[in-house]
């Protein structure tokens, strides 16, 4: 199955790579959150003694980002099945079951996830100190103390494992559902509603960023969590739209 998936992935790599940005973003988000969780462990005893625990600030985006990725995979798989429907129909005629086709798609998504995870981890390695400094200026050093952020192979391995696991499991689950119910045709009203929701969330995100205090203050991080939550919602709503636009321009 892995060899067959690799051959099909290599043959259709231009189409798959249009979705690479989604997995790079997911890899960066996972690596950023894991870096914060791992590197703050050395300062955690002092933070807990002061009744400050910044771990939820990094756990919430990690959880929401994982859920968002699984949701976005449904739209990605629908696009792939629609684009290569003749090829997959031929597989079905030759005797492939929905379960086997779902494994084929999930393995290709896992391959793409591994590439996105590595690139996202490398980007996070260089961008985490700057991003952490910006968060520290917003939230305050009582919640986010100054700590070093050396490159971590542990974070890289965890990022790679989590994203590959989410990609394969989410891809298999969504592909199996679509193939079993033949739900390749999307609802015609959903794209319009999705764009309206994205605009509203983007306006809300801008308003929340505007309301954030310009000077360091001691806050519980609720505003930051809301900003992260809106970011992953925008990722979910606009991810498939960007992929469709790329396919239109390419083909």
TrEMBL record:
Gene Ontology, cellular component aspect: plasma membrane
Membrane association type: Multi-pass membrane protein
InterPro entries according to UniProt: ABC3_permease_C
Name recorded for this polypeptide: FtsX-like permease family protein [Lactobacillus oligofermentans DSM = LMG 22743]
Annotated localization: Cell membrane
Transmembrane segments: 12-38, 58-81, 109-135, 147-169, 189-207, 227-250
Domain ABC3 transporter permease C-terminal stretches: 67-180
Domain of life: Bacteria
Lineage: Bacteria, Bacillati, Bacillota, Bacilli, Lactobacillales
Any Pfam family matching the protein: FtsX
Alphabetically ordered keywords of this record: Cell membrane, Membrane, Transmembrane, Transmembrane helix
């Amino acid at each position: 199955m892995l060899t067959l998936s690799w051959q099909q992935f290599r043959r259709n790599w231009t189409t798959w790579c249009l979705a690479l940005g989604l997995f790079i973003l997911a890899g960066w988000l996972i690596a950023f959150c894991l870096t914060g969780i791992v590197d703050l462990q050395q300062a955690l005893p002092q933070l807990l003694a002061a009744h400050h625990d910044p771990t939820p600030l990094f756990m919430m985006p990690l959880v929401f980002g994982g859920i968002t990725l699984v949701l976005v995979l449904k739209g990605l798989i629908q696009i792939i099945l629609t684009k290569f429907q003749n090829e997959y129909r031929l597989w079905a005629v030759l005797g492939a079951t929905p379960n086997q086709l779902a494994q084929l798609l999930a393995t290709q998504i896992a391959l793409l996830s591994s590439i996105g995870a590595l690139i996202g981890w490398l980007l996070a390695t260089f961008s985490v100190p700057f991003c952490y400094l910006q968060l520290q200026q917003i939230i305050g050093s009582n919640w986010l103390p100054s700590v070093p952020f050396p490159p971590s192979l542990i974070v890289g391995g965890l990022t790679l494992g989590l994203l590959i696991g989410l990609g394969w499991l989410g891809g298999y689950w969504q592909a199996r559902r679509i193939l079993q119910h033949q739900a390749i045709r999307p609802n015609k009203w959903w794209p319009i509603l999705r764009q309206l929701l994205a605009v509203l969330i983007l306006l809300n995100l801008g308003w929340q960023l505007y309301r954030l205090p310009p000077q360091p203050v001691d806050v519980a991080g609720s505003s930051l969590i809301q900003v992260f939550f809106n970011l992953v919602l925008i990722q979910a709503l606009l991810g498939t739209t960007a992929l469709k636009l790329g396919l239109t321009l390419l083909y």
